[in-house]
Amino acid sequence: MPRRLSTYILALSLGLTATAGSAASCITSQGQFGAYKQGLGQQASAQGVGQRGMQALQSAQLSGITWRFESNPSSQSGVSYGDPAEFLAKRSGSSAQAFINSVQNRVARNANLFASIERSYGVPGSVLATIWGLETSFGGYLGGTSIVDGAVTLASYCRRHPRFEDDAIAALQLVDRGVITSGTQGGPSGELGHMQFLAGNWMRYGVDANGDGRADPYNATDALASAANMLRQNGWQPGQPFGQGTRNFSVLSAWNDSGNYQRAIAYASERVN
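Above: the chain sequence. Below: its structure as tokens.
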């Protein structure tokens, strides 16, 4: 059966029609999640999401942890840390210096890899390894929430809608491509892999850096190079400083729009030899 036809039939089985101009409406209660999925399915089908992606949407469940996080103002990043070391300690669960030492060790143990990435994209290994450590403890914990569930739940929530809707559709496209499955786990907002990319960003910036023919967010080499690619394409200037007030510091907002996070990256990276 042709892919487009099978997608259309599956859409009908979900109670959907692939109307190109349709848009999902955001929701304010968990009981509306099924209706939101129907609207999102119309958009996904119109954007070419195939059978596997549509099946992943059909089976997607509202992520309780994502909904609770978005519903609880105290869980948001409204606290400002004047001292980046304090933020690093809170985020890493150790002292700031212990975290910086871990970054230093990771860079030293993978010196050739980080040097190669810097030659290609101009982003220092200290910056990439700091982000890697902050995001997943260097791949030690990649998340415990279904990526599809988290991405669709985040996109459905009115405070986040429609900003993250493209990421939800991208997550379904990644299922189509076999990069993830409907059960692959990541962060509560649909983040995936070693560097916790949002799905849309992985689609835009993911690269095959280890030469195996596929860009894989769960391969550290691919993930680190992709992070460097993302920063470079958003204006990173090779060989230039990245402390607060510089152009490169501003580029860090493309990775995470939290000032706390940006200051922590610069603080730790500047202290790695």
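Residues 241 and 248 are 7 Å apart (CA to CA).
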